[in-house]
């Protein structure tokens, strides 16, 4: 067919129409995240409402939020790698940048078929981590989606699973104990090869015949978050912000939630750095003496 201005016009209209439909069906993941590695091992499905990350022998994959936050309540529904996931780690965390970065970690350590996942948590303050707590879960995290929440506010950092608190790291800056309070953090997630340590200290390696290993994500929610714009300005302290809608910024655990936290820590916690005397023969980190729920 010979070229003509009318053909060019039709082509432009089709191109614009395709861009419109791509934008209309982009969904929350394309709107909210960028790939930071392994894009070829990721898919966005269900009109943008479902994202998958996969690991094969060549590469893992990961994404990061376009927004960065200074205090936030972040929800994500995640379904973990099914079957033999030994040696894999699916990470879901907030982190700032630089040598003295802050970080709030969920890491899901894979295991052999039939053995439970280990949920590994950690908090980094000003570049210093080593604040690990580990848990078994009271359900199969590969059978369906479950909600994993990071609540980082002025009072504490809370880790929730399906709305149940599993860990609290209180803000004790007034006692000289570091706490993330000013460095903007982005949300990251990734799946990667960690068979040198993830399962039984690295004794169990990845079975690559089971690849690809895929984790799935949906229902991302950062509606309750202070989005960082520049310097100290966030969506929570702009002239138009409504602090009446930001009760989560001062949220603590009520009596019911304290009972749920105790239940999880009594029945499902399998490691607590605050009780590991072999690791800290010279004495535990200072926050452990204030409250042993860290």
Structure, explained:
There is one protein chain. Helices cover 15% and strands 38% of the residues. The longest helix is centred in the N-terminal third of the chain and has 20 residues. It has a 15-stranded antiparallel beta sheet that branches. The protein has 294 residues and is mainly beta. The N terminus is likely disordered. Belongs to the glycosyl hydrolase 16 family. Keywords: Apoplast, Cell wall, Cell wall biogenesis/degradation, Disulfide bond, Glycoprotein, Glycosidase, Hydrolase, Secreted, Signal, Transferase. InterPro entries: Beta-glucanase-like, Beta-glucanase/XTH, ConA-like_dom_sf, GH16_AS, XET_C, XTH.
In brief:
Pfam families: Glyco_hydro_16 (PF00722), XET_C (PF06955). With 294 residues, the chain is mainly beta.
Task: Tell me, briefly, the overall form.
Answer: globular
Strand proportion: 35-45%
Report the average pLDDT across residues.
88
Percent helix among the residues? 10-25%
What about the largest sheet? 15 strands, antiparallel
Order of helices and strands: HHEEEEEEEEEEEEEEHEH
Give the beta-strand count. Answer: 15
Radius of gyration: 22 Å
Spatial separation of the terminal alpha carbons: 71 Å
Which key features would you list for this structure?
294 residues; mainly beta; 15-stranded antiparallel sheet
What's the layout of helices and strands?
Elements: H1 5-24, H2 27-32, E1 33-37, E2 42-45, E3 50-55, E4 61-79, E5 88-95, E6 103-109, E7 118-124, E8 133-135, E9 146-152, E10 156-161, E11 164-170, E12 185-193, E13 213-230, E14 233-234, H3 255-267, E15 269-272, H4 286-290
Domain GH16: 1-217
Keywords: Apoplast, Cell wall, Cell wall biogenesis/degradation, Disulfide bond, Glycoprotein, Glycosidase, Hydrolase, Secreted, Signal, Transferase
Glycosylation sites: 111
């Amino acid at each position: 067919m010979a070229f003509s201005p009318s053909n060019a016009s039709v082509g432009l209209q089709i191109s614009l129409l395709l861009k419109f439909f791509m934008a209309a069906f982009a969904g929350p993941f394309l709107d909210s995240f960028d790939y930071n590695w392994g894009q070829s091992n990721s898919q966005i499905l269900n009109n943008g409402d479902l994202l998958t990350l996969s690991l094969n022998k060549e590469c893992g994959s990961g994404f990061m939020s376009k927004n960065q936050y200074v205090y936030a309540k972040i929800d994500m529904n995640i379904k973990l790698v099914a079957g033999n996931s030994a040696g894999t780690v699916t990470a879901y965390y907030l982190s700032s940048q630089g040598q003295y970065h802050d970080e709030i970690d969920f890491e899901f350590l894979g295991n052999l078929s039939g053995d439970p996942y280990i949920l590994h948590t950690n908090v980094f303050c000003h570049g210093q981590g080593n604040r690990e707590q580990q848990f078994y879960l009271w359900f199969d995290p590969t059978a369906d989606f479950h909600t994993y929440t990071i609540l980082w506010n002025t009072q504490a950092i809370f880790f929730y699973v399906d709305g149940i608190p599993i860990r609290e790291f209180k803000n004790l800056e007034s006692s000289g104990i570091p706490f993330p309070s000013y460095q903007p953090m982005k949300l990251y997630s990734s799946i990667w090869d960690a068979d040198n340590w993830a399962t039984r200290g690295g004794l169990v390696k990845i079975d690559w015949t089971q690849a690809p290993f895929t984790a799935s994500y949906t229902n991302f929610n950062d509606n309750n978050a202070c989005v960082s714009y520049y310097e100290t300005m966030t969506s929570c302290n702009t002239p138009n912000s409504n602090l009446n809608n930001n009760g989560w910024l001062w949220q603590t655990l009520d009596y019911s939630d304290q009972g749920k936290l105790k239940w999880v820590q009594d029945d499902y916690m399998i490691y607590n750095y605050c009780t590991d005397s072999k690791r800290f023969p010279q004495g535990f980190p200072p926050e452990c003496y204030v409250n042993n729920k860290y």
